[in-house]
Amino acid sequence: GEDVEQSLFLSVREGDSSVINCTYTDSSSTYLYWYKQEPGAGLQLLTYIFSNMDMKQDQRLTVLLNKKDKHLSLRIADTQTGDSAIYFCAEKITGTASKLTFGTGTRLQVTL
Amino acid sequence: GAVVSQHPSRVICKSGTSVKIECRSLDFQATTMFWYRQFPKKSLMLMATSNEGSKATYEQGVEKDKFLINHASLTLSTLTVTSAHPEDSSFYICSALLLAGGPISSYEQYFGPGTRLTVT
Q1: pLDDT tens across A56-109, in order?
Q2: A69-96: buried (b, 16+ CB within 10 Å) or exposed (e) per residue?
Q3: Contact flag A102-B44 (C-beta cutoff 8 Å)
């Protein structure tokens, strides 16, 4: 199957860290992605991780991948109000012509 | 680089009419583009894969006669919603495939800003 699940909502205070989680079921994924969607807008690629990696850090963003548990997480350090958005994880499956399967999306709310 | 535009950004049409949405890759050529549909507070659902110079490949459950896709050039794909009904109201997002460089080269999708369709 290609189900990708995320929790619906996360609220954090400005300056705290946010951790958004994602679980997937297809073990043949090659790349896993995190996208950000602001209201009424398209998707912005934040970062991605190759399936043979455990961790990737890019400035305030840290991606952790646990292949055994099929669990992906995105940590945003020093969360800002501008980080408020919906975050989608997505996986690319081997042999599917670069198709992506998206998670259900997590709405991140950053409060003052 | 890798900018994808969509036109229009928002459209309201009457039931029974047809609406065309354009997806353009502005600074690169894309032989493959994807069309997604997003319901309110829901994830993106892949509708079809648009291939330049050939027929689109539709996902299961998507009516190809209802959602006409034309990929006439390497920078333009169009989605036409024919005989639109209120249930077709949605946010439609396209993406274009580009070979990305770097230590691990792969084809990556770059997304347009989306088109909000409202059918009255």
Answers
A1: 999 999 999 999 999 999 999 999 999 999 999 998 876 666 788 899 899 999
A2: ebebbbbbeebeeebbbbbbbbbbbeeb
A3: yes
Strands B115-119 and B90-100: antiparallel
Residues of A in contact with B32 (CB under 8 A): 97-98
Task: Tell me how far apart the alpha carbons of residues A86 and B45 are, in angstroms, rounded to a whole number.
Answer: 16
Best mutation target among A29, A38, A58, A100 (most B Cβ atoms within 10 Å) is A100
Residue owning tokens 């959602």:
B67
pLDDT 10s digits, A13-30: 999 999 999 998 877 777
Separation CA B45–CA B56 (nearest Å): 16
Q: Which two tokens stand for residue A74?
A: 């995105």
What does chain A look like in DSSP terms, one character per residue?
A: ---EEE-SEEEEETTS-EEEEEEE--TTEEEEEEEEE-TT--EEEEEEEETT-SEEEETTEEEEEETTTTEEEEEESS--GGG-EEEEEEEEETTSTT-EEE---EEEEEE-
Choose, out of A98, A101, A104, A107, the residue to mutate when testing the contact with B (most B CBs < 10 Å): A98
**How many A-B residue pairs are in contact by the CB < 8 A criterion?**
47
Q: Which residues of A touch B34 (CB under 8 A)?
A: 99
- What is the number of other CB atoms lying within 10 angstroms of the CB of residue B120? 9
